[in-house]
Specification:
2 copies of one chain form a homodimer. By secondary structure, the first copy, chain A, is α+β, with helices and mostly antiparallel strands. Chain A has helices at 3-23, 32-38, 59-72, 124-133, 150-155, 163-166, 169-172, 201-205, 239-252, 264-274, 296-303, 307-310, 319-330, 332-339, 354-369, 404-420, 445-458; strands at 28-29, 52-54, 76-79, 96-99, 106-107, 115-119, 173-179, 185-187, 214-221, 230-236, 256-262, 286-292, 314-316, 343-348, 380-386, 391-397. Chain A is built from 17 helices and 16 strands. The first copy, chain A, has a 7-stranded antiparallel beta sheet, with helices on both faces. Chain A has a 5-stranded antiparallel beta sheet with strand order 5-6-9-7-8. Chain A has a 4-stranded mixed beta sheet with strand order 1-2-4-3, sandwiched between helices. In chain A, α1 (3-23) runs antiparallel to α3 (59-72) and α9 (239-252) packs across α11 (296-303). In chain A, β15 and β16 form a beta hairpin. At the A-B interface, β8, α8, α9 and α17 of A face β8, α8, α9 and α17 of B.
């Protein structure tokens, strides 16, 4: 062993001992088998070999762990349910991965008032069940509900299908507890809907992707449960038309629940791979799914449907029928996976730009197919999205033998085009590793400088921002 | 003139010249008549003699003004509509008061999508009118709507009567433009409902009370207009009962618009001073006002009213009748002012503590009346509030000759009691000058240290936090 290797090992051993002293020996591990569990995200795209995994029990242990790592000069990456799509929770080589898995307390003492306090490691599904059992509803829902944790959802300001109704994760928060690398704990947990006592550290934590501190608990405002709903599946030409109808729905419906878009490509994949009976038949074009508490007549009036559309609209007012219509939207990710390993792009756009952006995307994909590379077959495109929020998820599946570098370029070009049209490189997935190199498209040097100073104020050692390759 | 006075004057003249170079000579003033307009808040309680008033036109001018003041070592206080209740917008002696009055641009290019971009100096009333004219509604309403400005409402995270429906000002924001004392401008103005690209400077600005930067524009998400509503005025014993009913309303009503409490004392003042025909008659007790889009039968069922209450409930379903019932709540401030100059306290409490807190308050006031000071008449107490949010506004009017120091003590004791019961020293009014000495009741030393570091990151010279006496 060379001298510097010996030193590295000695430092790692010292840190392990220090962390074991904080969380107990059984909650620190350098076992490669254990570490492997934390070393890849579920897309399989991002990888890293952490030196240690540590599982603190609460905010105090978390703060002590962070301070020990900061003193040792070792970077820390926080991991919740590991359901992120941008690699933010995957530890870089040699870093410490801090798992929130043991922080699973659920304080229901204020449930009567519609306030629930959850440890960072509690899953979304458990919060939803707890709220429902007490006659309330939680405002955010997403497909990864059985794995995604509250801490991660706060750190990433999670979105999903009900943003148009209740807002994003940030809108559900009435407080957060957060541990810092300075060893400090901030605790905005009075459980009050209104509490104007200076800048909100809760709101600063939300969307910070683990770069400022580690969220250890969150206090959630619950909502009344949704009543009986009407689901309409409306044929639309493109995302632009869908977005226009969605705006009418936002302005005219009293109880919007969801406004979701499925493009022609996504419909085709669902039909091809899942043998799903497409409620809109075999025709071309996309679909807008509208779910609302309004009666059918009111919904049709609010949407101002043209006769040619109104006749083709499919309607559901009972559970089985609602599920059939929703399947066309909900099963798209499954159908996409059958086609191949997808790239999942997440963009936000102003409503007026959605149609033009979609046209650009088709042209860009066709151009890729016309290339002279290893493959001349165009990648498969399937666009879905929370169109009521101006949010599209673009799925791109390359044909076998596709030039991955060409797809990398396609990704970057797509984000550039979204920004050129006044949109953003991330609606709800975040920046993470995947888009760090694109951040300057949406943040000025001045904003990046201000954000860096805030980062330094919260985490002076930069412990929570370890470098990782893209 | 002594040497140091000469130096002070020379510095003031140099700063005046510098500011005139930025905003134009006609938009800087050291005229005492002009300065007097900015030197007192509308309660008349807070006063200060600014050295200069400056009116920048946009973010760039604001940033340049702030940087010039920072270089000169002169503190700056931002003033919008000057409708605050805690003295935060009143300049300390010798400081510069920065008025947002000229920043009145209104960008309606995205109004079709329900997005409105307003300069900091635009009034709430103008935003409401603009939204309504385009078939939308703005989510915040408060009595000072003709004076209160959007910039001030962002900086204070304004509340009001519709928080239970649409959330506070923070929930209406999809972006903010802010000028810093470093000369930097941050501009989160893409107008997107979703834009997860790092920590939100917009949300950090909201509620910062002008201590981090100057908000120069805000981008607002509009909502569908409220439909026809039912108003119920329900007799209640106390704030605790009102709060319980309010929680039922939050859980059971599909379209809650407002949940407001008026206590027995407030009702009595309205009857005495305004000769208002009390809809609940001359009886004792308080009232809960429920406004919702639900039908009457659904509302009564959701509230689970006991028979003795249900019979006494007053109901309105047309405009004139709605206004009559609302008058009992809306005219309380006017009635209170007829009684004398009030102290207006603003507290937030957990629902379960509202009843006990109110009892404590009555006992504490009675104790003051039983004192051996200049007056042995107890102050008059009138409690109203946004009880659906756990927010009470406590009005205290001392009898002629009351010992003001005793009322100061009463104020502090009231806030201490709120905190002892798990509540906060400010629901929606903020901290400002009035409650700076109480901040340690709700913020730990660690939190204050973190907030100070964030303050330093945004405003390294402390220019936006000039010292003022309480």
């Amino acid at each position: 062993m060379r001298g510097d290797e010996q030193q590295t090992h000695a430092r790692a051993a010292a840190l392990t001992t220090a962390l074991a002293g904080i969380v107990g020996g059984s909650h620190v591990s350098d076992d490669p088998t254990v570490l492997a569990r934390y070393g890849t995200d579920w897309t399989g795209r991002w990888r890293g070999r952490a030196a240690l995994a540590v599982l603190p029990l609460d905010a105090e242990q978390t703060a002590a762990v962070l301070a020990a790592c900061a003193r040792a000069g070792v970077g820390v990456v926080t991991q919740g349910g590991n359901t992120g799509l941008v690699g933010a929770a995957v530890p870089p080589d040699g870093s410490v991965v801090l798992s929130t898995a043991r922080m699973t307390t659920l304080d229901t003492s204020r449930l009567g008032d519609g306030v629930l306090t959850a440890g960072a490691g509690v899953t979304l599904a458990e919060v939803q069940r707890t709220a429902a059992a007490a006659g309330w509803s939680f405002g955010v829902d997403l497909a990864a509900r059985d794995s995604a944790t509250i801490g991660g959802m706060v750190a990433t300001n999670a979105g999903g299908v009900h943003v148009v109704r209740h807002g994003m994760m940030r809108a559900q928060l009435i407080g957060v507890e957060m541990a810092l690398t300075t060893g400090e704990v901030v605790r905005e947990l009075r459980g009050l809907d209104k509490d104007n006592t200076g800048p909100s550290l809760t709101q600063l934590a939300c969307g910070s992707e683990g770069t400022l501190g580690v969220v250890t608990r969150a206090q959630l405002r619950l909502h009344r449960p949704t009543g009986a709903t009407t689901v309409l599946l409306v044929p639309v030409d493109d995302a632009g038309t869908a977005a226009e109808l969605a705006t009418r729905a936002r302005r005219g419906l009293t109880g919007v629940v969801a406004l979701e878009y499925v493009d022609e490509g996504a419909r085709a994949l669902v039909r091809r791979h899942l043998q799903l009976d497409d409620p809109l038949g075999e025709g071309l074009g996309g679909a807008l799914l509208v779910e609302c508490e309004d009666e059918l007549e009111a919904a049709v009036a609010a949407l101002g449907l043209e006769p040619r559309h109104a006749n083709a609209v499919r309607v559901a007012t009972d559970d089985a029928a609602r599920r059939r219509l929703w399947a066309l939207r909900e099963r798209v990710p499954e159908a996409v996976n059958r086609q191949g390993v997808p790239r999942k792009l997440d963009v936000a756009l102003p409503v007026a730009e959605l149609g033009g952006f979609e046209l650009w995307l088709h042209a860009r994909i066709a151009h890729l197919g016309a290339g002279t590379g290893a493959s001349t077959t165009a990648p498969t495109l399937a666009v879905i999205g929370h169109v009521g929020d101006g949010n599209l998820h673009v799925n791109v599946v390359g044909p076998p033998g596709v030039d991955e570098a060409a797809l990398d370029l396609l990704e970057d070009d797509t984000y550039r085009e979204a920004v050129r049209r006044g949109g953003s490189i991330s609606a709800e997935h975040g920046v993470g590793r995947a888009k760090a190199h694109l951040l300057a498209l949406v943040r000025t040097p001045q904003e990046l400088a201000v954000l860096a100073r805030i980062g330094h104020a919260m985490d002076p050692t930069g412990t929570l921002r370890p470098r990782a390759s893209r």
